[in-house]
Amino acid sequence: xxxxxxxxxxxxxxxxxxxxxxxxxxxxxxxxxxxxxxxxxxxxxxxxxxxxxxxxxxxxxxxxxxxxxxxxxxxxxxxxxxxxxxxxxxxxxxxxxxxxxxxxxxxxxxxxxxxxxxxxxxxxxxxxxxxxxxxxxxxxxxxxxxxxxxxxxxxxxxxxxxxxxxxxxxxxxxxxxxxxxxxxxxxxxxxxxxxxxxxxxxxxxxxxxxxxxxxxxxxxxxxxxxxxxxxxxxxxxxxxxxxxxxxxxxxxxxxxxxxxxxxxxxxxxxxxxxxxxxxxxxxxxxxxxxxxxxxxxxxxxxxxxxxxxxxxxxxxxxxxxxxxxxxxxxxxxxxxxxxxxxxxxxxxxxxxxxxxxxxxxxxxxxxxxxxxxxxxxxxxxxxx
Length: 384
Ligand code: ATP
Ligand code: MG
What we know:
384 residues, VC0802-like, Rossmann fold, 2 domains, nine-stranded mixed sheet, elongated
């Protein structure tokens, strides 16, 4: 019997979107995660994706599919001809392996081919009766312990007994490109993950306190990026040293150090985004989590920026962020020791930075020049 994986995506995600574009992205991403696991074509069939699995390692496929955003659920199915007899035969074979006497089951039929001679309800009755007769099981529509699913399409029908949840969201690449400001901390990897989940192609930017980019390129930053690689697919990390900023700002009031540094990061990030063709910046900021993230400071830090700054964690509690970081596997890397740029900057920043002071200081240190000089020191690493 031929075995396939049937992949369903959320219809809601398609609203107002260009469906073929969305589906093509999803196909690309499924193919990417299957590389090295299974050689197969991935087809688009009547609002689903279907690929042959036969004798492949199903556990590996499950693991791979769980990182493909846009997948609502998937199932390993046996293929039948789109006729009542063939479907009945395949259901009995499938059920005899999965259903034991005394099981209360329910048949769920979905008919994507409306020219099929029986309605969904009629077909589920026919299949139900056949199962009761041959296997002596009970039918329970309200409280089934097992289910048999049948999907009837134009060219074939699929029979399966288990639906496996995917990660939901939208296919990476279907919502455009963003630059994520990645620190070594807990929050920014989670923010990056959430943007991927909404279909963004995420590229990273990291500022480090070393003289040489190679020191940062060999740090845990790359481990974090690789941890998210199953979700992101091919991406890049731009590294930029912070010493130009540090040298130019030694004489400014310590309280404004952090505010200016964050403005410096955003200004550099905007330039990187322009070069990369990205439409927004992403940070792991969460409102009032730390002194630099008060509303006053978020205002002063973002004032005058040309690009939107997306802050997917803005309303999250630290506990919620940590739970997500654990789920996606970045937490342990985030808490590993690392020499963060911010650790060399004032511990007690101004919590109500005044825009006028910020503007004056920026003129004094010639922020634009610092940004340009720093951009010249950047390096970019491709991760795939
Ligand atoms: P995180 O856990 O992500 O480091 P945090 O709670 O430590 O966040 P901050 O250090 O104030 O908060 O940083 C806020 C955001 O600024 C980070 O989430 C990240 O997006 C960005 N950021 C901070 N430091 C850097 C850096 N060295 N390079 C790139 N982006 C940074
Ligand atoms: Mg940090």
